[in-house]
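SAMPLE LOG
Freezer: B-3
Tube label: C17
Construct: single chain, 279 aa
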Amino acid sequence: MNPKVSVIIPTFNRSGVIKRAIDSVLNQSYQNFELIVVDDGSTDKTYAILEEYTVQSKIKLMTTANRGVSAARNLAVRNSQGQWVSFLDSDDEWLKEKLQRQMELVETEPSLKIIHTEEIWIRNGIRVNQMKKHQKYGGDIYEKCLPLCLISPSTVLIKKELYLQEKGFNENLPVCEDYDLWLRLTAYNKVGFIKDPLIKKYGGHDDQLSKKFLAMDYFRVLSLNDMMGNLNLTKEKKHLTQKMLLQKCNILLNGYKKHGNLYNCNQIEKIFLKWNTNH
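STRUCTURE (predicted):
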């Protein structure tokens, strides 16, 4: 029997934490899954640690040259066997009931194709409270996803056919690839939400991608620009997208002009002028 869920862990130089992530999957109360770990060109001891796990039948190990987290996830999905896919970042950890609670919701609400959960935030080893702007929701949440990313990849469960239909994560985005995918999915799909925290999301460490890019809104604007051409958007959602795009453009342009960043300034200005119907 094919596994119901394909669990995907992309990893790059995470030898210090990868065992925690893998063990949290293997210890799930729901066991009808396969686990695919993609080593994205690690140069530390990550691969040696992963080899120790391959004797377990539920684990498939894939290795690639370093192409980034989106390419690793997409590769794994293409080679997966499950009807559903679920992602876990290699520095995060699932609680034992995570998959079981999500699959129970699938049974009670079979129309759902994407489900996420609440999460526990741990920064530099200390549990912290999320700000109000990070509050999670279910239902038609497209508008709430426009300002920033409200779905953590490590919490999500997605119907594989929907993921493939949307062509997965955008491999051209070095960050905000999750923000981009959630916009495309929530544009025409209701989202299931479990209010209980079912993962631990760790942050504060130096190798986080979000620390390498100061102006994350630059990549969100690129995504919003693509969404403006999305045929699935209703008139109302297109208006909301345009409003958010212009707002973020204005903030970026002020910063770029202040700091003399002419290249990014010119790029964002072109997008702003393209969609600013009031000029």
